[in-house]
Amino acid sequence: MSKPIVRFAPSPTGLIHIGNARQALMNALFARREGGVFVLRFDDTDLGRSKREYADATEEDLAWLGIAPNLVVRQSERFALYDDAAERLRISGRLYACYETPEELEFRRKRQLARGLPPIYDRASLKLSPEDREKLEAEGRKPHWRFRLDHRNVVWHDLVRGPCHVDCASLSDPVLVREDGTYLYTLPSIVDDIDLNISHVIRGEDHVTNTAVQIQIFEALGAQVPFFAHINLLTTASGEGLSKRLGHLSLKSLREAGLEPQAVASLAVLVGSAESVRPIADLDELARLIDFDHISRAPAKFDEHELEQLNARLIHEMPYEAVRERLAALGADAGEAFWAAVRGNLTKVVDAAQWAQVVNGPVTPVIEDRAFIDTAIQALPPAPWDAATWKAWTEAVKQATGLKGKALFLPLRLALTGLDHGPELAALLPLIGPERARARLAGQAA
Ligand code: GLU
């Protein structure tokens, strides 16, 4: 296969969500694996709804995920290309002027349905003579433009869905240009796919229904038809579709919630595939796991709880060097031994701050049995403390008090940390150190 050229083509009308990230990653990682090119194309022909700030936020979100596009294009800067293509289609008789108002179309649609006919556009405008058109335009009517479909069966081999076919005789001729001269999504998308030599159109399954029409337009423009891979969509855990407009599960909100980009990427790519959903820290490895042949055709459910679990699993393996700066920014960089001691207890990196405070203080000790703690103080091993200190100490306290298990450990944990749960004390105790430990055991906040 020659090197693929792919594109992720969001319309910048809101913040991208995890479902958009799925499509972006499928494209970017496929290109990365195959040594291809990843284009980020902003479908911003709708000048009213598209916003530069959303485009910029999308770039930021992709950068956070670790997928930098090789090229960024904006459809709003490419109207001349679309005008040119529309003109070519007009000249070849594939794009024709239509004058029906929405009300007229609706009326005809209802009449067809009432007669038990499929509600397909009847091509009445195609039959207009130049004189009829002139007359309508003299009345002030402006045309919208439809693409004249060939009434034939269009087939393609979808890389995800296998052989697909659509009988185009069952479709209305699609409107490509509105009455006010603006473009619907279809034509600019195809013109750009042609202009940028897109080899694989990898996108959400909501576009399967557009594909046959698009193939006809590719052909009408004399271009080679790309491969298509229609990826199943993500839904919320309760099965609802995700919406940019509603701000569903935006990447920004996931980032701000302290989730790791690799956790988000792992879930976005692996859910609804044949692979088990597991944390993959390395994007090259994640790229190797993409397999269009084995993506489920059913929508995949995105579960926030699953994302948190993935996040936790990633952090439990994360090396100190990878988090050092972030710990410092949180005021929680208490060294490599600290990270090794606490990471297994974290769901998010920010949670390390709590344990840094436990180590560095101040901690308000909780002491329920003063006499027991006094005995424990007597048994404290001499400094310096290391990983073996906790065991030696608790053995000694056990000998002195006859207590064991929870009755032995919990009061010591409460006195040293003020909490009834947390990382292994064997690792925490040397970090807390003799001075603070003694003060806390004495009942002082330290
Ligand atoms: N802007 C379209 C969308 O967001 C792009 C569809 C496509 O990839 O062709 O759905």
Automatic annotation (TrEMBL):
A motif ('KMSKS' region) lies at residues 241-245. InterPro entries: aa-tRNA-synth_I_cd-bd, aa-tRNA-synth_I_codon-bd_sub2, aa-tRNA-synth_I_CS, aa_tRNA-synth_I_cd-bd_sf, Glu-tRNA-ligase_bac/mito, Glu/Gln-tRNA-synth, Glu/Gln-tRNA-synth_Ib_cat-dom, GluQ/Sye. The keyword Ligase applies. It is an enzyme of class 6 (ligase). SUPFAM superfamilies: An anticodon-binding domain of class I aminoacyl-tRNA synthetases (SSF48163), Nucleotidylyl transferase (SSF52374). ATP binds at K244. Residues 375-442 form the Aminoacyl-tRNA synthetase class I anticodon-binding domain. GO terms for cellular component: cytoplasm. Residues 6-308 form the Glutamyl/glutaminyl-tRNA synthetase class Ib catalytic domain. It is found in: Cytoplasm. GO terms for biological process: glutamyl-tRNA aminoacylation. Its EC number is 6.1.1.17. Pfam families: Anticodon_2 (PF19269), tRNA-synt_1c (PF00749). Belongs to the class-I aminoacyl-tRNA synthetase family. Glutamate--tRNA ligase type 1 subfamily. Catalyzes the attachment of glutamate to tRNA(Glu) in a two-step reaction: glutamate is first activated by ATP to form Glu-AMP and then transferred to the acceptor end of tRNA(Glu). This is Glutamate--tRNA ligase. It comes from Microvirga aerophila. The gene is gltX1.
